[in-house]
Amino acid sequence: MGGLRSQASQGNYPIPAGTRDILPEEMRELRQLSSALLETFQRFGYGEVSTPTMEYEDVLVQGDERAAGASYRLFDEHGQVLALRSDMTIPIARLAATRFADAEPPLRFCYLSHAYRAVRPQRGQQREFLQAGIELIGADAPDGTVEVLEVLTAALDAGGLPRARVGLGHAGMFTALLQEMGVPPADGRPVLEALSRHDLVELEQRVAALGLDERRRRTLATLPQLRGGAEVIERAIEVGGDDVRAPISRLAEVSGRLGERGIAERVIFDLGLVRDLGYYTGAIFEVYDPALGHVIGGGGRYDGLLARFGHPLPACGFALYVERMHVAQAEEDRARAEGRT
Amino acid sequence: MSEPLRLAVSRGALFGETLDLLERIGVDTAVLRSDSRSLMFPGGEVTVVTMRPGDVPTYVEAGAVDLGITGKDVLMEQHERVVYELLDLGYGRCRMVVATRAGSRFADDLERRLGAVRIATKYPRVAARWFEQSGRQAEVIEVKGSVELAPLSGLADGIVDLTATGRTLEENDLEVREVIAECTARLVANRVAHKMRHDAIDRIVKRIGNGAA
User: Which of A81, A98, B42, B184 lies most in the core, judged by the most C-beta atoms within 10 Å?
Assistant: First the structure.
């Protein structure tokens, strides 16, 4: 900061909490990053689409009971409830189901769009934020998942983040595991809640209260801590035996294909990974860069979502938070300058 | 991996036992024990960063440090912060309780007559959640200093606070009415570091697990 600012220059015309102005120097870099991402998506055959910033709340709720966390609502001139979209996945599912109902799958869409959530504003995370991402509709696991991961790692490279990694887990794995062990859903719920809060201490306590045998108890307590390369899958089967084999088989399929595409070392298998949106059904992703303490993107499979719009097709996608990627770029530059990489 | 893990340690009630723990897992704590002015203590495998207990979740969530040690009470109060809670370290054991003036049905009467009790606390969010969950109305008053003063002076009808031995409560003529939680020191990790540096973190966790038991 260059010197003290006078009271007058700050003005008294505030903008809403969690929003901000962007000035030319930053805007130029953001534009460059956005273009690099879009070009990558298009190179893989994904066509850019745009949807309204506002949707009918009913339509978002059709996709997810909690409207995917949409937080800002208003009434239109007819008294209908509109909501600012909280991500692009449901709007694009709606678009695919209505505008491409007769098209031959798979469908490949990409976007660069603002979305809105009532988050606690912090570094690189505002209430209005820019997302760049893709949706691959009509391609099943594991091939579709692997394609999406391939585009994702290419996008991270194009965005100047070669050290970034993708955490890969499976949305239903823990639920399936509890079921496999014969735990009634009501008893399993506190375990899943502890898992989604990343509270491994409470998870272990909750698991202990289930009255399972020693090995199963150890499996449930150990599995969420397993993360790393493909060896994690072996390790999970070692720990959990037959209980684990079926729930983990989908991840094992993906694992085999990643090597063929040369992206195995960009992926961290994470058996404790959970995401808070309800529509995920299979593989789930989180994106990390070592220079930044926050997640810079996420995604996964949502094979049930299109069916909720009357067009049953499997689907998979991701969204990168463009502003956070930009912060990560700056942090990577700083780390390089300080000789820390 | 070359860079040492950064570990945030609370200066406060947990500090002494945390240093003992670090020593057991092979971290040299001589400088930490003798130097009370520095804030960062570089080491080969672990760089220790000292701070107030309530700041630990902030630093860990932002990734300014990879790991942190702080009380469960702090984590409960700041439960919206996204950190991975990895280990119960077992020490610093105390209870988060609701306490009122000893022997009286004071608070119950007030709740019945006025519809709400006034609760003084350093943990406003824990207190509000506790009363809300149990279907009661409370007016939560945040105080910074000695909470025991609030019911004595008439600021509040009861308190929500941590107690280890119960002696301070007793000395101030307060008695425990409800236990909200058992609190101990916890090891927490940043969400990104937990994945990107899983080998280094697991090594530390394993060593603590072996040594802390």
Answer: B184
C-beta separation of B26 from B206 below 8 A? no
What ipTM was predicted for this assembly? Answer: 0.89
Q: What pLDDT digit, counting tens, does each position of A261-272 carry? A: 999 999 999 999
Is residue A162 reached through a cis peptide bond, with omega within 30 degrees of 0 on the bond before it? no
The side-by-side arrangement of strands in the sheet containing B117-121 is: B138-142, B117-121, B158-163, B94-101, B174-183
CATH architecture of B94-182: 3-Layer(aba) Sandwich (3.40)
**How much of chain B exceeds pLDDT 90, in percent?**
72
Query: What would the two tokens of residue A279 be?
Result: 């529509």
Residues of A in contact with B86 (CB under 8 A): 200-201
Contact B195 A270 (CB under 8 A): yes
Cβ neighbours of residue B185 closer than 8 Å, sequence gap 6 or more: B14, B17, B18, B69, B70, B71, B72, B88, B89, B90, B91, B92
A120–chain B nearest CA distance, Å: 9
Shortest alpha-carbon distance between residue B189 and chain A (Å): 10
Q: Which segments of A160-273 are extended strands (E)? A: 165-170, 227-228, 267-270
Asked whether B46 and B31 are in contact (CB, 8 A), the reply is no
CATH fold label, A34-171+275-341: BirA Bifunctional Protein; domain 2 (3.30.930)
CATH number of B5-92+184-212: 3.40.190.10
* A contacts of B64 (beta carbons < 8 Å): 293
> Are residues B195 and A290, on separate chains, in Cβ contact within 8 Å?
no
Q: Where in chain B is the domain with CATH 3.40.190.10?
A: 5-92+184-212, 94-182
Instruction: Please list the ranges in chain A whose pLDDT falls under 50.
Output: 1-2
Q: Touching check for B106 and chain A: CB below 8 Å?
A: no
Q: Tell me the nearest-neighbour CA distance from B45 into chain A, angstroms.
A: 15
Residue from the list A198, A268, A340 with its beta carbon closest to the beta carbon of B83: A198
Using CA atoms, how far apart are residues A288 and A164, in angstroms rounded to an integer?
A: 5
